[in-house]
Specification:
- Helices cover about 35% and strands about 30% of the residues.
- It is of the alpha/beta class and about 210 residues long.
- The protein has one domain (about 5-210): 3-Layer(aba) Sandwich (Rossmann fold), CATH 3.40.50.
- The chain starts with a helix and ends with a strand.
Length: about 210
């Protein structure tokens, strides 16, 4: 069973619904502000992985219009919407696990809720690769759903549209350990409660770190 292929199909089908529900990112503005303030370079090169309909990209531009953003995603319809929402950014079809593919350095990396669709092993490898992709003092932003990894399973997408996709929950302990082991300094760790009509709220974990 190809969990990635299933996720792509889900997000292609739910692209418009996802855009309608998540274009407003007010619950995460504070963390994006920290990211923008932490990237000191003017006209910084930013790589956004799993960009979806470009909702994060759009907010980053409101804070840092000087950013040069390359957004990537595996769902073609998401990329179409991202281009419409952000005509000044560039977008490419790319797996977030292939961050070495652009063969260039970036001043910032943004992983906005793409880790819930990636295994623990792949996430740890991505963090290792991120060290090679970021410039010195470059900033990495990670947001993911936090819970015991053993609870990972097929669940309906948060957009409420489409079949179930496999959701990987991640834990702060091994994410922070992987960042530290790869010479990152944690500059922000925060959590946001996301309402769940079927039970207790989901905990969204946000990590922002600087490459030494």
């Amino acid at each position: 069973m190809d969990k990635t292929k299933i996720a792509i199909e889900v997000f292609d089908k739910a692209a418009e619904a996802y855009q309608e529900k998540f274009m407003d990112l007010k619950n995460y503005h504070a963390s994006f502000d920290v990211f923008c303030e932490s990237v000191k370079k003017e006209n910084a090169e930013i790589l956004e992985l799993g960009c979806g309909p470009g909702n994060i990209t759009k907010y980053l531009f409101t804070k840092r219009p000087d950013f040069k953003i390359l957004g990537t995603d595996l769902a073609p319809r998401m990329l179409q919407l991202a281009r419409i929402n952000n005509p000044s950014a560039a977008f490419e079809l790319m797996d977030c696990r292939d961050i070495l593919k652009p063969a260039k350095k970036f001043d910032g990396l943004v992983f906005g809720f793409c880790f819930p669709y990636i295994s623990k092993e792949d996430v740890i490898q991505i963090i290792s690769d991120a060290k090679k992709v970021l410039t010195e003092k470059g900033i990495i932003y990670i947001s993911t759903m936090e819970d015991d990894y053993s609870k990972s399973d097929f669940k309906l997408p948060s957009s409420g549209v489409g079949p179930a996709a496999f959701i990987y929950y991640h834990q702060a302990d091994y994410l922070t350990a992987a960042l530290i082991e790869n010479d990152f300094e944690i500059i922000n760790l925060s959590r946001v409660d996301y309402p769940n009509p079927e039970g207790p709220p989901t905990i969204d974990l946000i990590l922002i770190a600087r490459r030494k």
